[in-house]
Amino acid sequence: MFNFIKYKNIFLGLALILVVLSLVSIFTFGFKQGIDFVGGSLWQVRFDSEVVNSQAIRESLLKYGIEGISITSSSDRSYLLRFSEIGEDKHQEIASFLKADLGFFEELSFQSIGPSIGDELRRSAIWAIILVLIGISVFVALAFIKASYPVSSVSYGLITLITLFHDVIVPAGFLALMSKFYGVEVDTNFIVALLVIAGFSVHDTIVVFDRIRENLKNYRDKKGLSEIVNMSINETMARSINTSLTLIFVLIALLFAGPANLFYFVLVILIGSGLGTYSSIFVASPLLLVWHNFRRKK
Questions:
Q1: Rounded to the nearest 10 degrees, how much is the dihedral formed by the CA atoms of 12, 15, 21, 22?
Q2: Whose CA is closest to 279, among 200, 215, 225, 211?
Q3: Can you tell me whether residue 150 is helix, strand or coil?
């Protein structure tokens, strides 16, 4: 049986370093916001001609008078165009102009969002993340309301909140870096990715916490809390890793074979899944022990 608790300071220190670096990244670089949050038009098209490329599309749109253009291409000759907000009449005019200038293309999708709607979506997204983190923590505290002495249900809920913050803030810091150096835009897909990470992470954490609760019932008169926590981690580690690997394999497949416009969405979930597994095993349970010892000394 591996002694995880012996190295708890190393595990918790690494988690703390990741959180600090992520916060520095977020406050230093910020996020490049997509049209979901600042408004604009998003247009996905596919050209039949192999001669057409991103540069030709950009030059054609510039000739028409469209500025602030961002173009992302994929292997199937489809292009994701981002530019300032336009109405439906303008959209049809641009479509006709592009067909005359570059040849026939298939329109896959088009959406246009005004700045006021984008601002409302941004506020709603922030509140969604905050309320989900708090809601999950309260749910865990209530679920462990009959938790065995000496660990209270409030402790389970508090540690869950700290762990979820770690799992959400590190992918956010990573995306801030990608926004700065690769121009990756943050949109509602990113918010969905963070919520998926939170849900997956708490699932693993609850499994470990539930085993700690059961072992406290059976062994609290025979073993110390640190020994019980360590035993619980060892008993659930294989299950946590195997569960995570099934998701990670799917995400890796989507990363290389999925749609180009979902690449960073999948990448963020992939990073968060790995972090969620790490935090459930190496952060949540050791932190529960540290918090209990702190309260007892106080």
A1: -140
A2: 200
A3: coil
CA 218 to chain CA centroid, Å, is: 37
Protein fold of 5-35+117-297: Multidrug efflux transporter AcrB transmembrane fold (1.20.1640)
Please compute, for residue 168, the number of CA atoms within 13 A of its CA located in the half-sphere on the CB side. Answer: 23
The closest of 77, 4, 64 to 278, measured between CA atoms, is: 4
Sheet with 105-113, strands from edge to edge, namely: 70-73, 78-83, 40-47, 105-113
Is pLDDT of 207 > 80? Answer: yes
Helices 8-29 and 153-182 pack at an angle, to 10 degrees, of 50
Task: Say which residues have a Cβ less than 8 Å from residue 32's Cβ, sequence separation at least 6.
Answer: 179, 180, 183, 184, 185, 186
Residue that the structure tokens 């408004």 belong to: 39
State the pLDDT at residue 117.
65
Measure the CA–CA gap between 196 and 199, rounded to whole angstroms: 5
Report pLDDT digits (tens) over 2-13.
888 888 999 999
| CATH 3.30.70.3400 in the chain, residue ranges | 40-113
The CATH 1.20.1640.10 domain(s) of the chain lie at 5-35+117-297
3-state helix, strand, coil in the chain (%, to 5): 75, 10, 15
Short-list 272, 297, 104, CA closest to 198:
272
Q: Does domain 40-113 have CATH number 3.30.70.3400?
A: yes
Amino acid at 194: L
Least confident of 27-31, 48-52, 159-163: 48-52
DSSP string, 60-72: HHHHHT--S-EEE
pTM for this entry: 0.80
